[in-house]
Amino acid sequence: MFCPGSFYSSLIANLLPQGVGAAIAASRAPKVFIPNLGVDPEQLGMSFQQSLSVLLHYLIRGASNVKPANVLTHVITDTQHGLSASSVNRTALRELGIELVDLPLVTPHSSPYYDNARLLQALLSLR
């Protein structure tokens, strides 16, 4: 699972060691990206698609014959209350073999962030 947080120092940094992408690709578990809904200073000026491209770059680098769907199976977000629906290119995700799970994950209580209970339910449904 690739969770919200500091994009480069928390997420990408963990993908830098040699063999991480290949190990992720070899796993049969769901591989889920949960994009940030808040402001991350490490992603200033980056669109969702740019963030996804950077994530995929680091997941695939150094691994031979690995396709995006081997290292990322799902993107979970809320395009009604979180990410702008227009920022998520559904066609591009489908072409990469990545499933978009678009659910009401932001509640009045949790806004502008994901509701932990709803996000947990969404993750558990991927088994």
Shape descriptor? globular
**Largest sheet, order of strands side by side?**
1-2-3
State mean pLDDT (0 to 100 scale).
93
Please provide the count of β strands.
3
Helix content: 25-40%
Structural class: mainly alpha
Secondary-structure element series? HHEHHEHEH
Q: How many individual helices? A: 6
Q: What separation lies between the terminal Cα atoms?
A: 13 Å
Quaternary status of these chains?
A: single chain
Give a quick account of the main beta sheet: strands, pairing sense, barrel closure: 3 strands, parallel
- Beta content: 5-15%
Attribute tags:
single chain; 127 residues; mainly alpha; 3-stranded parallel β-sheet; 6 helices; 3 strands; 35% helix
Compact overview of the structure:
This protein is mainly α. The protein has helices at 7-11, 20-26, 48-60, 68-71, 90-96, 116-124; strands at 32-33, 74-77, 99-102.
Describe the protein in words.
This protein has a three-stranded parallel beta sheet, with helices on both faces. The chain has helices at residues 7-11, 20-26, 48-60, 68-71, 90-96, 116-124; strands spanning 32-33, 74-77, 99-102. Helix content is 35%, strand content 8%. It contains six helices and three strands. The chain is globular, with a radius of gyration of 14 Å. By secondary structure, the protein is mainly alpha-helical. The mean pLDDT is 93.
